[in-house]
Write a structure and sequence with these properties.
Elements (H helix, E strand, L loop, with lengths): L1 H19 L14 H7 L3 H32 L3 H5 L3 E4 L16 H12 L7 E4 L4 E2 L28 E6 L8 H8 L3 E6 L7 E9 L9 E11 L6 E8 L2 E9 L5 E9 L5 E7 L9 E6 L5 E5 L8 H7 L4 E4 L8 E4 L7 H12 L3 E4 L6 H11 L4 E3 L7 E2 L25 E2 L3 E3 L4 E5 L5 E8 L2 E6 L14 H12 L7 E2 L4 E5 L10 E5 L2 E3 L2 E5 L2 E5 L8 E7 L2 E9 L2 H4 L6 H7 L7 E5 L6 H7 L6 H28 L1
Parallel strand pairs: 1-2, 1-4, 4-5, 5-32, 13-14, 13-15, 15-16, 16-23, 24-31
Antiparallel strand pairs: 2-3, 6-7, 7-10, 8-9, 8-11, 11-12, 17-20, 18-19, 21-22, 22-23, 25-29, 26-27, 26-30, 28-29, 30-31
Helix pairs in contact: 3-14
């Protein structure tokens, strides 16, 4: 349309030039008598002067209007991009928009695309932008897919100068709507809310998975737990779930859902001899976009623990690890071990201090247990490692009771079941005290620390304040779980699954990397190169914006596959409960610019708002019409003068 308008305008310029410069086809006429010439000579000079002035005025006005038309035309259509910038449609492309729309036939995201294509003709009057911070060409809107990467669009400089109005299409989830951002948008532009959510929508999904006991210290078989959630007004008493290993069906569960919409599926499995790629699929025909949950069951290997100096078989620490087949005990420092348990009755020499510094520099951990003879030597050693606030405790040989653990602490979370939370705590005899640490795991009832971690170099030191041999704590139900957690925290495995909205994921590695190493993620034929940061025991990966789909991703280092990770749709995206239209209208009261809220089924009325968003009427066409009318008047005056001359 723009090129046709420019062609018409250039044609009109050509006609103007012909008219003003008299480029006409001329023909000679022979007069049969002199009456015509005599009548022209007899015209009044005053009349001739007046008519010439009228013609001059008409031509001058025609040129003025033509000039205005020229200026207005090219200011309105100076570029094709300006035409695109009449209005901005911001489309929520988060994964919740993959759920069913109100018509039940398509997803909300596809419904938005269809609606705006239908009401916007031609489609080039709008620009499209997504909450994943991507501009879309009008002809590529139909290729829109959900994205993990979401951003605060109100702070994006890319669209602040575009259009007069913003049309925001979203489902406005209760748990995932940024109210501060919406108010910021409403105070910067005229905002129109197109609401694609509805309160009665239900959804079934896997919220999380875990093991009852750490996989490395479980017996030959173990239980995989999956928490199932049901969201929405409809009451669903049971949900069917199945577990697949690749394409093989290996487990079923019929999950009872409680009044809070939560149920647990339990699958009995055997320890895998190799890495297993598992999928949990729940039965929910209403919304199938998040019915599948991906997880990795890692290959289990024995975890090596170095005891140096070596401990006797009767030592309670040694006995605790000896009875678990998942641990391999070494009475010397070995390179393949990531944990060093240190307890001595002797003074600690400088060579041992040097070994500890090198051990920590490699990102490994040391568990230090004092004895009555080595307390002063441990203080000196810790000072050499950089911990200055240690001292011996006064009132030697007096016992103090321990406080109950904080079971919300990540160290204890989902490791100790509820029976531990009401047990009587033991008393021990503290030898050491300190004021601060990286993390206090267990404390005495006077709030002084019993077990703390210290971040030193690239590793961790776990320090007990009291001897364990012969103490009440060594016979307490918490003794084994606490020791096992210290070891497992020192040699972490990759999580069973990652969430797609994580800015970064920490992936443990057993191979050495250097700065030139390149980590890639491969899913089918798609390969992604995330930003990475090498750590002593692994690598931090920053998921790229292009990574959009849940599923299994093969991890490659320098092109060689080393492992696989599972990435899932964030559980927040599966909670489809939305704000109502009335709630949104109340929310925007008092904003700088008016905010119009409409449901998706009112989309037809949006056409008037889009037309209103243009830069006003195109005045250039009215100037051209006036120019044409003036030229017609001039032509009439000229014809009248000629006819008058002939009389």
């Amino acid at each position: 349309m723009l090129f046709l308008s420019i062609g018409f305008f250039l044609s009109f310029i050509f006609l103007i030039l012909i008219h003003f410069f008299g480029v006409r086809i001329r023909k000679s006429i022979k007069f049969s008598n002199n009456q015509f010439l005599l009548s022209v000579l007899n015209l009044s000079k005053a009349t001739q002067y007046f008519k010439n002035r009228v013609i001059f005025s008409i031509r001058a006005l025609a040129l003025v209007f033509f000039g205005l038309a020229f200026i207005l035309f090219f200011s309105n259509y100076k570029s094709f991009d300006h035409k695109l910038g009449q209005g901005l449609v911001v489309i929520d492309d988060s994964w919740s928009m993959a759920s069913k729309s109100f018509n039940g036939r398509t997803s909300k995201l596809h419904q938005i695309v269809q609606d705006f294509k239908r009401i916007n003709s031609p489609v080039s009057t709008l620009k499209y932008y997504t909450t994943s911070k991507a501009f879309l060409k009008p002809d590529s809107v139909s290729e829109l897919f959900p994205s993990f990467s979401q951003t605060v669009i109100s702070g994006s400089k890319e669209f602040l100068g575009i259009g007069k109005q913003i049309f925001l299409a979203s489902d406005f989830q209760r748990n995932n709507t940024n109210s501060v951002e919406l108010l910021s948008l409403a105070n910067k532009r005229e905002l129109t809310i197109v609401h694609y959510g509805y309160e009665s929508q239900s959804n079934v999904f896997v919220d999380s998975v875990w093991f009852q006991a750490p996989l490395r210290v479980s017996s030959g078989s173990f239980i995989l737990h999956a928490r199932i959630k049901v969201i929405g007004s409809s009451k669903i008493p049971f949900v069917k779930a199945k577990l697949l290993n690749g394409d093989y069906h290996i487990g079923n569960a019929e999950v009872s859902i409680d009044e809070n919409g939560i149920g647990n599926a339990n699958f009995s499995l055997k320890k895998p001899s190799k890495e297993a790629l598992l999928r949990i699929i729940v039965d929910d025909p209403g919304n199938s976009f998040d019915n599948e949950y991906f997880l990795i069951l890692p290959k289990t290997e024995r975890l090596e623990i170095s005891f140096f100096p070596s401990l006797s078989n009767s030592n309670p620490i040694y006995k605790a690890f000896q009875q678990e087949p998942g641990f391999a005990l070494r009475n010397s420092l070995v390179k393949t071990s990531s944990v060093w348990v240190f307890q001595t009755e002797n003074e600690i020499n400088k060579s041992t201090q040097t070994l500890m510094k090198e051990w920590l520099r490699q990102g490994k951990s040391i568990v230090i247990v004092p004895s009555f003879k080595s307390a002063a030597s441990i203080i000196e050693m810790m000072r050499a490692l950089g911990v200055k606030n240690l001292s011996e405790r006064g009132n030697a040989y007096s016992t103090l009771p321990l406080s109950r653990p904080d079971f919300t602490d990540p160290f204890f979370k989902e490791v100790f079941d509820r029976r531990y939370q009401k047990i009587t705590m033991p008393s021990v005899t503290p030898l050491l005290q300190w004021q601060s640490s990286f993390h206090s795991i267990l404390t005495f009832q006077d709030n002084s620390p019993f077990l703390s971690s210290f971040k030193i170099s690239d590793g961790f030191v776990y320090l007990f304040a009291a001897p364990l041999a012969g103490s009440e704590f060594s016979n307490h139900p918490l003794f084994l779980p606490v020791l096992y957690q210290l070891i497992l925290k020192s040699d972490p495995q990759a999580p069973l699954a990652y969430s797609g909205d994580q800015d970064k994921i920490e992936f443990p590695l057993t191979i050495q990397m250097n700065r030139e190493s390149v980590v890639e993620l491969r899913n089918g034929g798609n390969v992604f190169i995330p930003e990475q940061r090498v750590q002593p025991n692994g690598v931090e990966l920053y998921l790229p914006q292009e990574l959009r789909d849940p599923g299994f991703y093969e991890v490659l280092i320098n092109g060689n596959p080393i492992s696989t990770i599972a990435i899932n749709i964030p559980s927040e995206e599966s909670d489809l409960q939305s704000y109502s239209k009335d709630e949104l209208q109340d929310f925007f009261k008092g904003t700088k610019y008016p905010v119009k809220v409409m449901q998706a089924n009112e989309i037809q009325s949006l056409q008037k708002l889009i037309e209103k968003d243009k830069d006003g009427p195109d005045l250039s066409k009215y100037c051209l019409i006036l120019c044409i009318l003036l030229l017609l008047v001039e032509n009439f005056v000229l014809r009248n003068r000629k006819s008058g001359s002939a009389t």
